Amino acid sequence: MNLMTERNLEKAVNDKMNAQPNAIKMQGKEVTVHYGDKQALFGVSLDVPEKMVTALIGPSGCGKSTFLRSLNRMNDTIEGCKIGGKITLDDEDIYNPKIDVVELRARVGMVFQKPNPFPKSIFENVAYGPRIHGLAKNRQQLDEIVEKSLRRASLFDEVKDRLHEAGTGLSGGQQQRLCIARAIAVSPEVILMDEPCSALDPIATAKVEELIDELRQNYTIVIVTHSMQQAARVSQRTAMFHLGNLVEVGDTEMMFTNPTEKRTQDYITGRFG
Amino acid sequence: MTDIALNPAAVSAKPTRRDIGLKRRYAAERRFKLYGITAIAIGIFFLCALLYSVLSNGYTAFWQTEVNLSINLDPKIIDPDNKRATDPNVLLTANYPVLARNALAEKLGVSSSDRAGLRELSKLFSEGVRGQLRELVVKNPSLIGTTQNVWVLTGADIDSAFKGQIDLGVDQSRRKVSDKQVEWMNKLKSEGVMAQRFNTGLFTYGASSRPETSGLGVALIGSLYMMLIVLFLSLPIGVAASIYLEEYAKKSRLTDIIEVNINNLAAVPSIVFGLLGLAVFINFFHMPRSASLVGGLVLTLMTLPTIIIATRAALRAVPPSIRAAALGIGASKTQMVFHHVLPLAAPGILTGTIIGLAHALGETAPLLLIGMVAFVANSPVTPLDPATALPVQIYMWANEAERAFVERTSGAIIVLLLFLAVMNITAIILRRRFERRW
């Protein structure tokens, strides 16, 4: 190890970075974001590989949530927000005026920091998406979608007897899994998660993390997290942001054991952030 | 133990506590509480004084003195020339009060030749008997020739005397009922044929110069029409405007100006809206005067700012996380608004609307300007017919001098306050029931 030259190390990192078995699902090229006069992202280029969990880490205010939210154009709802550069989904520019934002969000679902179920029944929470997108032809199909989504979010067994009770009556962890089920129900290709466990206790966090790991088989997941351990546990790739710039991106294992950038190392070891 | 107690050093060793003004602070708190309690007590006192004065004056208006007469519907008096089969006007113009007078004279033993006695007797019952008997006969002409038991309204002065509102101790020349009439009144009362009965006329009669036959009927219909117009115009317009301003409109100078103007409109004196209604609806669009349609339109203009402000506040109170959740699974903006935001804001919107309606129901000034302060005797059929409104009716009765109108004024205030209370309680119940906490 000590004998390893710096060049060798660099090569090893590059090898790992290049060895992407999965196709690129989403791609950001020189993405810039302005909130009014304030610039939040300074030209971020990041690839999101298919059927993998990509974790975005970095100190508060570093632009990771901003980048995440520009992946399904949730930033559009913020007044004064301007986006530059290019973001593609399956090589299609999602900021192209021809792209329908509603359709985009049906393909790129989102789970938020705080569980935010609709103040409706558990069933209605999950059924809402399929219903507005016309994914179920009849009540039976809708029932199936709801059950499947709840099962995938490993929530079905806990709520199967009270599907018609209020979703807001569940515990925090259950609510977050309900939100994940709600996102899954519209069969998205990508799921964006904005610190999904920050409002949950460790046990609920463990369940959600387990769930994320399972979902990886079917969905491309991008997760923003403040917890290094969480990034290490659930993600395959990690991107480190700092002050609106992408500092480093690579395989998670590599990032945590052998970061090339000093800032990454400092952040991971808790020297700043 | 004793050592310590006797040791002066130990005593002085106890640290002297800093004066941090605790006493002063608690005194200030007590003082403030006292101010608050005083303020509330003053408020409650005036509320009680108001309610007491209205209720004590007005409760008698809900009972009206009536006398039960066996009236012989004599064909010789109703139709002396026996032409009723050919001329329908005969039944309409017949001298019905004479029938009632004769029935009463028979009962009280007044001779038909005693002209002065009969004249005084006629004042015992109301002129309203004309319309009452006419309606009876016109509806069923076969009753002519029979004897019917009818409850007839007494005159307003007899009613006041019967309710003890006229001081019978003063000389009869200085009061409105004569000793003779009082004597008859007491006789009828002891026989049980003169009694107070529930005053349905208060809710059905229109305007009249005779207190006993004047009622809130026209005003109630007018107010009802206006409330319906206000509800069906201002709710959709107000909610649509609020949704657009709150959810769709991009923040710009224009929306800022609109916002300031809406807030200002809510504070514009209502009489100005009356002038606007007069100028626009009546003088420009030539809508009929005194019509509840115009009143409703004016009150709609007045209520709109209130509803818009309440609706926008209710929309703003819906947490952004719900909007984000809906957009995040691909709901369009309109779906987000109508499926999630609006249902959650509905209790707030309803509360605002009901309070706006209650405000409109009690509004008088703009209605005076568009001519709803008219003497309207017949019930309006459509909103285009002349009508009055509850508060305007109160205003008109308050200008009358007779004792019987005083009690009617208070009675009408009670009715209006009841409506307002019911509406406000409904608003509170709706808010309690549908309010959600996140």
Automatic annotation (TrEMBL), chain A:
The keyword Disulfide bond does not apply. InterPro entries: AAA+_ATPase, ABC_transporter-like_ATP-bd, ABC_transporter-like_CS, P-loop_NTPase, PstB-like. CDD domains: ABC_PstB_phosphate_transporter. One of its GO terms (molecular function) is ATP binding. Keywords: ATP-binding, Nucleotide-binding, Phosphate transport, Transport. The keyword ATP-binding applies. Residues 26-268 form the ABC transporter domain. GO terms for biological process: phosphate ion transmembrane transport. GO terms for cellular component: membrane. Pfam families: ABC_tran (PF00005). PANTHER family: ABC TRANSPORTER I FAMILY MEMBER 17. Belongs to the ABC transporter superfamily. This is Phosphate ABC transporter ATP-binding protein. It comes from Phyllobacterium brassicacearum.
Automatic annotation (TrEMBL), chain B:
GO terms for cellular component: plasma membrane. It is found in: Cell inner membrane; Cell membrane. Residues 220-426 form the ABC transmembrane type-1 domain. InterPro entries: DUF3333, MetI-like, MetI-like_sf, Phosphate_PstA. GO terms for molecular function: phosphate transmembrane transporter activity. Keywords: Cell membrane, Membrane, Transmembrane, Transmembrane helix, Transport. Its main location: membrane. The keyword Cytoplasm does not apply. It comes from the Bacteria. It is a multi-pass membrane protein. The chain crosses the membrane at residues 34-55, 224-245, 265-285, 291-315, 336-361, 411-430. The keyword Glycoprotein does not apply. One of its GO terms (biological process) is phosphate ion transmembrane transport. CDD domains: TM_PBP2 (cd06261). PANTHER family: PHOSPHATE TRANSPORT SYSTEM PERMEASE PROTEIN PSTA-RELATED (PTHR43470). NCBIfam families: 3a0107s02c. Belongs to the binding-protein-dependent transport system permease family. CysTW subfamily. This is Phosphate transport system permease protein PstA. It comes from Phyllobacterium brassicacearum. The gene is pstA.
